Each structure stands twice: as structure tokens, then as C-alpha cells.
Amino acid sequence: MGKKETAVRYDADGARRVMRKRDYLADFGGQFSLGLMANLVGQLTYFYTDKVGLAVGGVGIVMMIAKVLDAFTDVIVGNMVDHSKGGNKKYYSWMLRMAVPAAAVIIMMFTVPTQAGQMPAMIYALVTNLLLTAVIYTMIATPFGAVMIVRTNSQSERSSMGVWRAVGNYGAGMVVAIATIPVTNLLGGTQSAWIKYGAVLAAVVLLLFLICYNNGRKAKFASEFTEEAADGVPEQEEEPVPFGEAMGMLFHNKYWVIVLLFNLITSVTSGVAASSGTYYCKWIFGNDNLVGLLGAAGMLATVIGFVVSKPIISKLGVQRTIYVGLLGAALTAAVRCVLPTNFAVYTACSLIGSLIQIPLMCLYGVLTAMAVDYNEWKYDKKLVAMSGGAIGFGSKVGNGLDSVILSLFLTIGAYDATLEAASTSMRYSIYGFSNYLPLVINVVMFLIFTKFDLEKKLPQMRAEVAARRER
Fold it and tell me: Does domain 243-470 correspond to CATH entry 1.20.1250.20?
């Protein structure tokens, strides 16, 4: 066992492997905790309106303000992390600092002081939302995302980390979606029940963060296996880059811009897709209960997708995996455009489209890492945390735009929920955001990604960076 741990291993590109099984498990735990925090926020609207009696309109405003402010904190926190000291270990130190506050605020989310009146309760809801998402979550997630970049130079190991993280994030979403209502109802269904439920999740989050941090502080990073580290000379901290200058560098990195667009656009399409099924089943197929059937089948397709993701990425590589995912999703959307009213076709295309795009979810961090490697080659600056933070901004903006786009389509189609059957304009608006929008967007993203020719260039770029350091 010890020999396997210490044996020097390299991937197909000649990059040294540094990850161990326990590293992947700890990484999974960290992402699972972040997923619990993020998905728990998605349950708050129901909690606020149905369990503590806050006004629906006020809750909508609170959630909108929190989401807008949350989007901008990623870039700010990314810049803070890049300017902080502590070498590569600094990325884990943020998790230690925020672990206890994260657990505390998760519980506070449900202790809304309803007896104080609507306005104080709304303010409390806004403040706790901002603390959890815009401050604590971002201060953990931004440096944690950067870990994938500095932990290893192996594309294979980065892909494996991406798969573990995607499974952790999705698994947390499933736990929250499946357990929240039944568990809180079992505990009495009151605000007190939700507080107890929140306390259990807070304990899980705290424990997993501490495990992840403890593993990370003892882990060896790729930089520790360089010649400089072997000679006993510690790797120098990257000189901080002013915010404006750093943003200029990023926007002159075409690969970073492509990844930013990829995160933005896929966030929009996934958000619209998550909402479109209900409209499609109700107005096109005439039975909104079919959503449950589609959801159950979709879960099976997702599990299969995660199982096959690693072999697919290993076989095809990063760029071709993305090509297959984008063109596959476009093709299934095209079939739905041709046969929009056939439930069997709709179900099959939706499941195949989801299955074929799961590997793309596992590559978000890998693509960001590749863009950071290009930063280092072009500018001699990695801008690790800020690169990831700015791309996180794109994802959060995309998550906000999805509801705007959905509302726009419904408005254009003169959507009227009181009708017995959908009008012609309503049907075509539903076809628009369910079938035609993903067809167009996936084709456009494919054309954009034909410019992402970084995968084959990286080994030579890293060799050139290493040679520069030796001078």
C-alpha cells in the first residue's frame, strides 16, 4: 500500500499524478457541502411563503436582490484570494475560516423572526441570504474552485476531480430535493421542524468542510514536485495584479472568454430546461403529472451519465467531449422541433440530451484550469482565483437570465394560465424555449468552441513556462 502511495506516476501527457483516493473523497465532501448550501437556498421561497407567512411579492424582491448582489461577489472574492498570502495552502484556509460561520448561518436562515412583523422579517431574510450566498458560499467556493488548477497539472486528474465534484454537487441537489419536504413534515411541518432540519444539514456541512480542509492542508501540490521544490527552494508567491489590469488580461485571453460564455450560456439553457418540462407537459401533452415520470427517468439517465463520464472524457479528450455534448444536444432538440407533440419522442430526446451533456458538467473546472494555464504562458500570471471567480459570475448571471428569457417567451406568446387549452401562440412560445432555443444555442456554442484549440498546445506551453523559470 505504501509503495503505491509513493510511486511516481505520470499521465499520458507526461504530467505527474499527485492525487490519491482520499483526495478525491475529501474533494467530493467539500463540493457536496457547497451543493447542500446552494440547493438549500432553492427551498427558501416555499419556506418563507408557506411556513412563516411572508408576502410572496416581498420574498420575490428579497431573492432577486440577493441573486444580483451575489453575482458580483465572485469577481471581488477572486481578487481578494489572489492577493492573499499562504501559497497553495491558502485555498483551503478560506474553507477553515468559513466552516463555522457557514453552519451557523444555515441554521439562522430558518430562524426568521416572524413575530417582529413583515418588514423586519424580510430584512432578516435578505441579510441571512446575502451572508450565506454572497459572502460565505463565495468565500469557500471561489478558492475551492481554484484548488483544481493548482492541485495537479494532470488533465486526467483534473477530469477525475471534475467528475467527483459534479457527482457531489448533483448528489447534494438530490438529497435536498428528495428529503426536505418529507423530513420537515415528519418533524411536524412547522418552522421549528425546519430549524431542526437546518441544524442537521449544518452539522453535515461543518464536518465535511473540516475533513476536506484537513486533507488539503496535508496534501502535496503539483508545484511541490518541481525541480525548485526538490532543491529545497520554495515556490514564490505570484505578485498580485491590480483588479483592472487583471480583468484586462482575462478579456484578452480568448480561451477564458470562451469558458465564460460557456458557463453563462449553459447556465441559461439548463435553467430554462428545468422549468420548461412543466409547461410542456401541461399545455402540449395535457397532463402536468407527467413531469414526475420525466423526472424519475431523468434521474436514471443522470446516474448513467456520471458513470460513463470519466471513460468518455478519457477516450475523447476535452474538446471532442464538448463537441459530442453540444452537437448531441442540438440534434435531440432538432428532433423535438420536427415532432413536437409526440410524448415518446420528447421523453427519449430529453433523456438522451441530458445523458450526453453530463460529461460537460464534469469539465467546467478543467476548462477553467486550461484558461489559467494559458494566462501563465501569455502573461506569466496565473490569476487563479480571479479567473474562476469571474467565470462564476457568468454562471450566476446566467442563472438569473433564465427566468427573464422564459418570461419573455411566455409574454410574446400571450401566455394565459386561465385557459382550458393552449392557444396557438402559447404552444409556439413553449416550442420556442423548449426546442428551438437549445437547438440554436448549442450550435452557436459548438461554433465558438471550434476556436478552443488549447488542449494539444498545453504540454508545449508548460514546457516553455518551466524553461522561463529556469533562466
Answer: yes
